[in-house]
Amino acid sequence: MKEKVAALTERIVPNGRAMILAYDQGFEHGPRDFLENPESRKMEYILDIAQKGRFTAVVVHAGLAEKYQSEIQDAKVPLILKLNGKSELYTGDDPYSPQLYSVADALALGATAVGYTVYSASKYEDQMNKEFAAIIREAHNKGIPAIGWMYPRGKSLTDRELASRTIKMALEEREHTNLAIDETYPIVAYGARIGLELGADIVKIKYTGSVESFKWVVQSASPTKVVMSGGPKTKTDEEFLTMVKEIIAAGAVGIAVGRNVWQRKNPLIISEKIRQIIFGS
Ligand code: FBP
After folding, report:
1. Which uninterrupted H or E stretch holds 255?
2. pTM of the predicted model, to two decimals?
3. Quick check: CB of 28 below 6 Å from ligand 1?
4. Among 3, 190, 249, 251, which is least packed, fewest CB within 10 Å?
5. Using CA atoms, how far apart are residues 258 and 21, in angstroms rounded to an integer?
């Protein structure tokens, strides 16, 4: 099964490089993300970008995967099925994203890999670690890779009185950067490392703002592969492309991006520029 997992990982990360199109935001943020470019509300539009932009995979929840199963197959873009999810409507301090679908569902829908978000630092982190560990075990037994959205988030990150040593390091890092606490390298590296310790094949994480700090994050996760999460649309293409250049220089295999592609007026232009940086062609 190890060989099968490696072969499917290679499909998403051909020649050690990945360019994944994320489209789970309709659940995580709601349709407000589509207002910027209303065409982006349609799965057909996203699949067209994925195919013409030569993305190495597309991420969706089960509802879209089921409704567009044949279109996804025709587009020949590997599917990553997101197995957990939560909306932004509940705004409590400590997030929990429950498992909603299984590895078996993913296989039935023709997925090449499964994805799961872990909010380390939430008071529900144990529950998410347990669910993700069970998913990884089952995915690997069935021969498919598992990808962790490793996003430390929760009240502990901001409660100075209870701050752990890692959080104190993060607070110090924040003193001389403009980063949010969950973008500082001690926190991002910890989340990425938990992904490795749980057995994830790829982790999707936030950028830490510099090549040097991201290098440490990539090294902390190794041999688990690292992709950068896109984040909100930047003001200019250049701003986003610089981040892509920096994470590649730091040793990441690529990106898993949504809004910075499909919220732009011409998503294929930025896709091509991203491709040049990641694949050099
Ligand atoms: P974007 O490139 O649009 O940021 O998408 C990456 C992603 O991880 C999505 O897969 C997910 O829906 C979203 O970000 C989560 O965003 P947030 O960090 O706001 O919860």
Report:
1. strand 254-257
2. 0.97
3. yes
4. 3
5. 6
